């Protein structure tokens, strides 16, 4: 894709309104990564809280540097073989003028690249939820760098880069159902199949330690997702971004309600964890489809995702894979649902004239969606498993058994999330602060 516009009389000109809008959207997407950190951090046990926060935060550092050095060029540079991009003028973000516009749009290249950077940051962070309690922080940081390079950057080019095979095929992915959520969910599955289960999986209680923190994280994700989705139209001139904004709210609400209803019927209670998880499932599912469906279609997408994702989170117990925080059940399954339902609910009145089966369009778009979904799923699953295997056999992916039982926060970060040394006294204080030497006692306390 050309790095700058031509001087033709009818070429786009810089829009300060769209530029400002996209900068705000970029900031909203950036906020999603700390939101994800809180969401995941509240879902783990006390002894893993800081590690969970750091697994998200470190992506902000690593992926940002890689994006500047070569990631943007790989994802959005001139196409090579429909598989990867490259533009030497973009290496280190050199050769980009302050007012050079993204080809065909009214925003500067710098604005587009920073918006896409935030997508690149959060995608590997999503994977971390499946690996809670057991992965060395150094190994995780190296995995993020390698995975972004060999999985995310190429897949982003397939889906969104000019010349990418999925882009040229006509696969609809408005804001990242395949490139972000299926990509991350499949990667999570690949890694956990290699590194194995947590100690005590299916035996010990592993309940969230702070549901208020989970709800705070979910709220920040919901808020930031408006930038994630509505901003992906790269402007605000024709109403499509507004449609996506509305559909984001509608589908998320429908998914939350559907998850809670399913939960009440299946388990007898409306839980806060279910509300938060249902909302995220709806956000995931509407991400690829929201620019193509009507608000009523968004209700259907959200409701289907809410029920099916709620059902899917239990598969880890049936099949024995330890997806700690349900990345597979929510992000992989939700991404697949949202992407495939485009083939049924695309109205032809949103981002394009493409119609799904329920609007008289037949199954043509559905098969295109299948191609994108299963290609990304297979590639990310296999390559992620290979990366995890190589790291495990070289530097080791997992902390020791004693460190996992005692708590990964202390082992990897020399900190704890909560300091109770100044709270209360007597036996309660002694029990909370006294060092524990016996591994079995550590396990019970955790």
TrEMBL record:
GO molecular-function annotation terms? ammonium channel activity
Q: Which GO terms describe its cellular component?
A: plasma membrane
Region Disordered, as annotated, extends over: 424-446
InterPro entries, A to Z: Ammonium/urea_transptr (IPR029020), Ammonium_transpt (IPR001905), Ammonium_transpt_CS (IPR018047), NH4_transpt_AmtB-like_dom (IPR024041)
- Annotated membrane-spanning segments are 20-40, 52-72, 105-127, 139-160, 180-199, 211-228, 240-262, 269-286, 292-315, 327-346, 366-391
Q: Does the keyword Cell membrane apply?
A: yes
Stretches of Low complexity bias are at: 428-439
Q: Where is the Ammonium transporter AmtB-like domain?
A: 21-418
Any Pfam family the entry gives: Ammonium_transp
Q: Where in the cell is it found?
A: Cell membrane
The membrane topology term of the UniProt record is: Multi-pass membrane protein
Q: Which UniProt keywords apply?
A: Ammonia transport, Cell membrane, Membrane, Transmembrane, Transmembrane helix, Transport
Task: Describe the protein's quaternary organization and the partners it interacts with.
Answer: Homotrimer.
Against NCBIfam families, the record matches this protein to: amt (TIGR00836)
PANTHER family according to UniProt: AMMONIUM TRANSPORTER MEP2 (PTHR43029)
| Entry similarity comment | Belongs to the ammonia transporter channel (TC 1.A.11.2) family.
Described purpose of this protein according to its UniProt entry: Involved in the uptake of ammonium/ammonia (NH(4)(+)/NH(3)).
Protein name, please? Ammonium transporter
Tell me which species this is from.
Answer: Streptomyces cadmiisoli
């Amino acid at each position: 894709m050309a790095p700058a516009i031509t001087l033709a009389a009818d070429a786009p000109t810089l829009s300060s309104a769209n530029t400002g809008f996209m900068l705000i959207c970029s900031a909203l997407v950036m906020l999603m990564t700390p939101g994800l950190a809180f969401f995941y951090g509240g879902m783990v046990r006390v002894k893993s809280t800081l590690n969970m926060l750091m697994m998200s935060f470190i992506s902000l550092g690593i992926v940002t540097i890689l994006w500047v050095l070569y990631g943007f060029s790989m994802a959005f540079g001139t196409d090579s073989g429909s598989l990867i991009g490259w533009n030497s003028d973009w290496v280190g973000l050199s050769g980009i003028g302050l007012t050079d516009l993204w080809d065909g749009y009214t925003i500067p290249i710098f604005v587009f690249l920073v918006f896409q950077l935030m997508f690149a940051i959060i995608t590997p962070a999503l994977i971390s939820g499946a690996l809670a309690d057991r992965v060395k922080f150094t190994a995780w940081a190296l995995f993020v760098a390698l995975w972004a390079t060999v999985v995310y950057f190429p897949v982003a080019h397939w889906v969104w880069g000019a010349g990418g095979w999925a882009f040229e095929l006509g696969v609809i992915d408005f804001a990242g159902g395949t490139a972000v959520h299926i990509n991350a969910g499949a990667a999570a599955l690949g890694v956990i199949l290699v590194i194995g289960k947590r100690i005590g999986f299916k035996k010990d209680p592993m309940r969230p330690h702070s549901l208020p923190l989970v709800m705070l994280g979910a709220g920040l994700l919901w808020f930031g997702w408006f930038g994630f989705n509505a901003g992906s139209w790269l402007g605000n001139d024709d109403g499509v971004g507004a449609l996506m904004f509305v559909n984001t709210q509608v589908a998320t609400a429908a998914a939350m309600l559907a998850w809670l209803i399913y939960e009440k019927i299946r388990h007898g209670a409306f839980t806060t964890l279910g509300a938060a998880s249902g909302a995220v499932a709806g956000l995931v599912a509407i991400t690829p489809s929201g620019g193509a469906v009507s608000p009523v279609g968004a209700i259907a997408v959200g409701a289907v995702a809410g029920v099916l994702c709620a059902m899917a989170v239990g598969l880890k117990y049936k099949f024995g894979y330890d997806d700690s925080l349900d990345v597979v059940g929510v992000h992989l399954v939700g991404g697949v649902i949202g992407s495939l339902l485009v083939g049924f609910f695309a109205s032809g009145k949103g981002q394009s004239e493409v119609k799904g089966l329920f609007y008289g369009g037949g199954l043509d778009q559905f098969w295109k969606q299948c191609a994108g979904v299963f290609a990304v799923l297979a590639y990310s699953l296999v390559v992620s498993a290979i990366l995890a295997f190589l790291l495990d056999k070289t530097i080791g992916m997992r902390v020791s058994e004693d460190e996992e039982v005692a708590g990964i926060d202390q082992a990897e970060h020399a900190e704890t999330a909560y300091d109770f040394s100044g709270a209360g006294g007597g036996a309660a204080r002694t029990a909370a602060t006294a060092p524990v030497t016996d591994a079995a006692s550590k396990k019970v306390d955790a």
